[in-house]
Structure of DUF4382 domain-containing protein:
Amino acid sequence: MKSLTLALLTLALGTSCSDDQDDNPNGQLRLSAKATFTSGSASKSPSAGKTINADLEVSEFLINLKEFELELDDDAFEFDDDDFEGDDDLWDDDGYLDFDDEIELEGPFELDLMAGQITFINTTLPNGKFEELEFKFDRSDDPQSELFGKSVLIRGTISQIPFEFWHDFEDEVEIDFDDPTMDIVISTGVESLVLDFDLSLLFNSISGIDLTQATDGNEDGVIEISPQDPDGNNALANEIRNRMKDLIDLLDD
């Protein structure tokens, strides 16, 4: 297992391919997401969620992702678009699939990461090596959603007091595989990618963020951590936002 050390969001790759790659120019990409709690445990009350540490439990973790992009390796072979039975709008129309092309997988994708592993993209792509994966957090525009106007929402308890963190940032996360051995390879068969969000790495009093410093400033019984800052926790909200973007781990199985 090779690891590119950056740390919160884990991109785990597992591949299943057939041997007759020359007979089919296309492969399948299956993209999933889940949350894990490497240093925590299940709460005694299923409705209470997951215990991160002695002070913190998480019951809801929702994110909204706008889109995903895959960029071909500069050394990728030329590929005739006419041989691919798919959406020509995924790349330019110069007749070849090459480094000028970026495959775009449009959302939005609203994910409930406390619901177990969720597959939210399952699509046919041309065979090739991809050196960059990019995805974008964006606020939801669905008025029926709990994420309406937000890009991330986390609820739970801090020292048994209810808390809610949300943010409305619109930020891109880019994973560039400078090492060619780390490329995502689409070939005949199925390539499975799993975005694994480990909250234990984010909310860690030693190397992460200690939420016990958050306060219920307006004394309404809920610790609110957001850019609107009703409880005086705005600096903490921005710290969580930045940690979510900066701590990324890439695992290649």
Observations:
- The two ends are 5 Å apart (CA to CA).
- The chain has a mean pLDDT of 75.
